Every structure is written in structure tokens, then in C-alpha cells.
Predict the structure.
Amino acid sequence: MKQECKIGMISGTGTEGQGIALRLAAAGLQIALGSRSLERAQQVAGELNRQLGQERVAGVDNRTLVANSDLLFLTVPFVHVDSVLQQYRDQFSSNQILVDVTVPVVFDKGPRLLDLGEGSGAEYIRGRLPDRVPLVAAFKTLPAHLLVKRDIGLECDDFISSDSVEAKEHTLEVVSKIPGLRWIDAGPLRACRALEAMTLLAVMINRRYKIKFARYRVLGLEHE
Ligand SMILES: NC(=O)c1ccc[n+]([C@@H]2O[C@H](COP(=O)([O-])OP(=O)(O)OC[C@H]3O[C@@H](n4cnc5c(N)ncnc54)[C@H](OP(=O)(O)O)[C@@H]3O)[C@@H](O)[C@H]2O)c1
């Protein structure tokens, strides 16, 4: 990814969006944090800058964000993905990369994955995007409440997948800047069928053991 790559979080005002923005900004990157409300975006960006001790995060409305970012993180609850895609799908260009961090988990009588005909949330999104827009899935198994605690090291793995090798490589160039986080190439988007189930499992482990930050480490890789 070129040095001047502009990174944006679509509705990054939630815990996951803030956490990714915070970790990337702490690694030295400039981030645009979007919201449906400019005021909310600016307020959250101000709070993150206060934590960082420097002006690394700018609050903007989602529409401006989508028009001006190269690497766009989709950080909304999965149940709102349709409305967000409907709003921006025509604005997305082939020069941008959309990074899906959503997990189709719902909570009714306990956590469960939505039954999606496409197999995973990422493939569902792929099917609703113009072919020209590269889609990458990342950050799916990382707990948001850990990401926002900058004083706690991540010390774990996360998984990246895409049907576009180039888009995956560009995204890796950016997200690899976060210390303590090793990226595992999980292959094509259909890997998200397993990855999203792993997130569900982590949620269940958190509940069972009354912990907050269950996450993954793959053993047996040479570059440990
Ligand atoms: N929580 C985790 O540990 C975790 C881990 C991995 C992946 N994820 C995924 O990360 C994504 C974000 O999670 P989160 O916990 O940060 O979500 P969240 O706080 O519930 O929501 C994120 C943002 O979505 C926007 N939003 C809310 N309602 C909306 C609507 N009706 N239409 C459009 N946008 C709406 C809001 O932004 P504005 O109002 O400012 O626009 C909100 O701040 C989810 O897909 C989740 O599955 C979460």
C-alpha cells in the first residue's frame, strides 16, 4: 500500500472501530474515523487523540470518509450491513479496498451465528458489492474490548482472508504495523465460514470462563 494510503473507519464510533483506529494510530498512522453524525465522529476522534497524546484521528461524516479513503474498514454491526452497503456501494471504487470486520453473531437465548445462505458474513457482503471493489476480511477474531485497551498488549494472532491476493497484501502492509499482533493468511474469503465461527467460540469461552479477552494463537508456524 502506498505511503499516503488513507485509512478510514465507516461508523468507527463503536468499540471495534475505535479499537482498530486506536491501535493503528498508536502505530503511527493517520486515521479518519467516520460516523453517520459528524458531531459524534469528532467527539470520538477527540477522545482517541486525547488517549494518544497527539492528533492522529480525524472525525468525519461517513459520506466524506468513503469519498476520501483508500482502505475502508466496515465497522458496523452485521445487521446494518445491508443499509450501509446500499448507501455507499455505488461510491466504492476499484482503487479502494473494503475491509470487513463484521461477524454475523446475534444474541438470542445466547450467542449464535446468523444462518446465511452465502456461508459467511464476508461472502454475504462480497455478493452485495460491485465486482470492481476488492474485499478483505480481517480483525474478525479480535475482541473489541481488548483493542481499546492500548496499555494491554494483544500478543495473539488474527486472520486475514480475501479472494484478491493484491488487496490482501496491501491491507497486510497497513495492519502489520500493529505491534504484538501476528497475521495469519487464512486464504480466500470462504475461510470466514471458519473464522466467524471462531469468533462465536471466543464469545462462548469468555462467557463460560468469565473472562473478556479470549483470542487465538496458532502453534506450529515457522515465523512464531
Ligand atoms: N465487539 C467485538 O468484540 C467484535 C470483535 C470482532 C468483530 N466485531 C464486529 O465489529 C463490528 C462493530 O462492532 P461494535 O461492537 O463496535 O458495534 P457497535 O458499537 O454496536 O456499532 C458500531 C457503529 O455502527 C453504527 N450503527 C449503529 N446502528 C446503525 C444503523 N442502524 N445503521 C448504520 N450504522 C449503525 C454506529 O455508528 P454511528 O452512529 O456513529 O454511525 C455505531 O457506533 C460488528 O460487525 C462486530 O460483529 C466485533
In short: Residues 192-209 form the longest helix (18 residues). Residues 11, 13-17, 35-37, 40, 75-78, 80, 83-84, 101-103, 105, 140, 142-144, 199 surround NAP (CB under 6 Å). The chain has one domain: 7-209. The chain has eight helices and ten strands.
